[in-house]
Structures are given as structure tokens and as C-alpha cells.
Amino acid sequence: MRIGKVHMSKKTIFIVEDEEDILDLLKYNLTREGYTVASASDGAEAVKAIQRKMPDLILLDLMLPGLDGLEVCRMLKKDQRTEAIPIVMVTAKGTETDVVAGLELGAQDYIAKPFSMKVLVARVRTILRRKQEQPSERDAVVKIRDIVIDPGRHEVLVKGKGVELTFSEFSILHFLAGRPGRVMTREQIVDAVRGADYAVTDRAVDVQIVGLRKKLGVRADYIETVRAVGYRFRE
């Protein structure tokens, strides 16, 4: 156990939360788990602090004074320096619309208030662990016909032209294209992209696929729907 604590102490979690009691609760529990914790109470301050000293993971409330959480997420995911930092939305909003919005912007996970601290800590551990696992598979460039997917550059080329994808769309495309011909259920897609304990509706996955197909344009048909099962990338 001590070895795990030493390892985790190298990880920094940045909390963006304007409710002082919740912020104190998160700081106390995450520090006790061995993490280094930094924080900000408003969006603009958070963006500047994160860009100065990049953390390993961000816990981000949506309801913030001034710059809201969705805008903070959008800004961080558009910045090459910070786009790969996992973001977990922690918010009182719990509707499907908010979940989908967070996914589309590139958030890694979503936890609604009131939350279980044990569940939150478990999600944090899972995301940080998955960030370190199987780097060769995650970083491998995939080339299929006239599509090139480069995780290192977060770049997708279709017939030599760049296609701009959200973090979630990119992750799903890379996962499916890396297994051409294999049918993947929605649950398998979520598990691979976000972790086995991530709670998400089937519709949220479908929304990501719809957006991905639109952006692939003439190559939208490379992603096939397998009725009542899931999706696959054409061989």
C-alpha cells in the first residue's frame, strides 16, 4: 500500500470548484489518498493556472462564476499543451444533454452531485491508471486505405486533408479503426475510451458516432452500424 501512495504522490489533481465546502472535502480526501492538489474557484483563473503548471487530471465544476465549466473545457481541449489532460466534470447538472455536451468537448468522465467520495476517487484512479497503460497501442498510428489516424499529433487525415475531431470522436475512431471488421458494442467502446465504471447512455455513444460520420464526409460509410449490437470499422 505504501508503494502505491508514493506512486500517486507524483500525480497532481487540479480542482475547479467555487463551493468552498465541496472544495475542502475534495482537497482533504484526495490529499489523504496521496495526490498533490491545486485549485481555483473560477474558470478564468483555472485556465491560467493549468496552462502555467499542467496537472495530471482536472476535476471541473460546470457551474462557475464568469467563465463556465464547459467553456473552460473547450479552451483546454483546443490548446495543444493541455488537450491530453483528463477532465472529470463534477456538477449538480445531471441531464443527458450535459453528459453529451461534456463528452463532445472531450471530458473523460462525469460525476453528478451529490456524489460518493469513494466512487469519485475510484474514477480518478482508473483514469490515471489507464493513461499509463498500453502506451504502444494508444500511440500507434493507424492507416487504413485513405485514412490516417495519428494519436501523437491528435491528427486525422482523410485523402490527405485534415479532419478536426473532438477528443471523444478521435478516441472512438482510433479504437474502431484499430480493430477493422470487429463489431464493438457501445459498452465496449465506452470501456475502451473512458473506463469500465463510466456510466453513460447508449444515446450518448450514438451522438458521438453521428458527429464523427459527419466530419468524415465521403468516408462516413467506413463506420458501419450493426443493428442491435454496436459499430464496426469496415475492413
List the helices and strands and how they pair.
Blueprint: H1 2-8, E1 12-16, H2 20-32, E2 36-40, H3 43-52, E3 57-60, H4 69-78, E4 87-91, H5 96-105, E5 109-112, H6 117-132, H7 135-139, E6 142-144, E7 147-150, E8 155-158, E9 161-163, H8 167-177, E10 184-185, H9 186-194, H10 202-216, E11 223-226, E12 230-233
Parallel strand pairs: 1-2, 1-3, 3-4, 4-5
Antiparallel strand pairs: 6-7, 7-8, 8-9, 10-12, 11-12
Helix pairs in contact: 3-4, 8-9, 8-10
Structure characteristics:
elongated, five-stranded parallel β-sheet, four-stranded antiparallel β-sheet, disordered N terminus, 12 strands, Rossmann fold, 235 residues, alpha/beta, Arc Repressor Mutant, subunit A
Descriptive notes:
It is a single chain. With 235 residues, the protein is an alpha/beta fold. The model is unreliable at 1-9 (pLDDT under 50). The radius of gyration is 18 Å and the shape is elongated. The longest helix is centred in the middle third of the chain and has 16 residues, at 117-132. It has a five-stranded parallel β-sheet, with helices on both faces. Strands 6-7-8-9 form a four-stranded antiparallel β-sheet, with helices on one face. The chain has a three-stranded antiparallel β-sheet with strand order 10-12-11. It has two domains: 2-132, Rossmann fold, CATH 3.40.50.2300; 135-233, Orthogonal Bundle (Arc Repressor Mutant, subunit A). Helices cover 45% and strands 20% of the residues. The chain has helices at residues 2-8, 20-32, 43-52, 69-78, 96-105, 117-132, 135-139, 167-177, 186-194, 202-216, and strands at 12-16, 36-40, 57-60, 87-91, 109-112, 142-144, 147-150, 155-158, 161-163, 184-185, 223-226, 230-233.
